[in-house]
Amino acid sequence: MRLRGVGRRYGLGGPWVLRGVDLDVPPGSLTRVQGHNGSGKSTLLRLLAGIDAPSAGRITGRPRTAYVPERFPAELPFSALGYLTHLGRIHGLSRAMAARGAGEWLERFGADGYAATPLAELSKGTSQKVAVAQALLAAPGLLVLDEAWTGLDQAARGVLDTAVTERAADGGAVVFVDHDPRRLAGVPARVLRVADTRLEPVDHAPASPAGPRVRVEAEAPPGAGAALPTDLPGAPVHDSDTVATGRRVVRLSVAAPYSDALLRALLTARPPWHIRAVTTIGGPQERAEAPQAPREQPAEGLPRPVEGPEGKA
Ligand SMILES: Nc1ncnc2c1ncn2[C@@H]1O[C@H](COP(=O)(O)OP(=O)(O)OP(=O)(O)O)[C@@H](O)[C@H]1O
């Protein structure tokens, strides 16, 4: 998706909130937008989500988009499950798939006990879980999150962190605003700031090494010159590159949420790479068994990505 010369002002002759915004949002990218209160972050996100139109400039190439607004309209006449199923149908899922996906997301967020509760009777936090689930339900090409973590309990915030990084690793673009600067630390993200009507890049420290990472040891396919596939998900760090018994063996490490996507990319490369070992490393909660017992990971035993609804529109 591309924004060229995009501007927005409210009302005829009102002050420009955004002006001359040029932005590319490529598939698989994760973008954080920051700025002072009232600087125009939500305005930008509404333009990205397509629920508001620019006063100037053009936006082209928007993929199927889902949006979590700052405020969720809870007065709709649906139960939580009914609402999610309805939205899944709108996104093109069959009734059965929409209902299954809706149930799975409610369960993932620990809200399955409220499936039959009318939206208007949900607590603020549970209603936020439904707001987030509706956006994740149909695996959108662009996910726009405006302070979507606010109001979620700690467990649900973690679920959303994982879901967001999975979406980006699977090729979806994600743009988010969150007041917590540590949100998704450790996951490679571009940071932009809205200031004085402009959108500008922010120099920020490289991704924190604090989060858990996964090391993948992969063996090149037979034959000379097997190059590592380009554009591997999660921007993996190339830890080592050796030749053992005539085969090139590389060790890559990546932020944990990207590990499934990285494995898939290696296994489905042409020709495919052979996965020798997958080990969880680093992070404050380093798995005790990891250093002693790297887990052999045969191709057919690939861990499935965390369950989401199947079938895209
Ligand atoms: N619908 C609207 N009508 C008129 N003015 C608006 C509207 N929406 C936003 N504005 C104005 O546009 C400016 C930017 O608002 P916006 O909500 O985009 O900022 P923000 O950076 O998201 O703020 P916050 O951090 O407080 O959520 C503000 O001056 C706001 O008053």
TrEMBL record:
Residues 222-236, 290-300 have a biased composition (Low complexity). Residues 222-241, 282-313 are annotated as: Disordered. InterPro entries: AAA+_ATPase (IPR003593), ABC_transporter-like_ATP-bd (IPR003439), ABC_Transporter_VariousFunc (IPR051782), P-loop_NTPase (IPR027417). Keywords: ATP-binding, Nucleotide-binding, Transport. Pfam families: ABC_tran (PF00005). The keyword Transcription regulation does not apply. Residues 1-221 form the ABC transporter domain. This is ABC transporter domain-containing protein. It comes from Streptomyces malaysiensis.
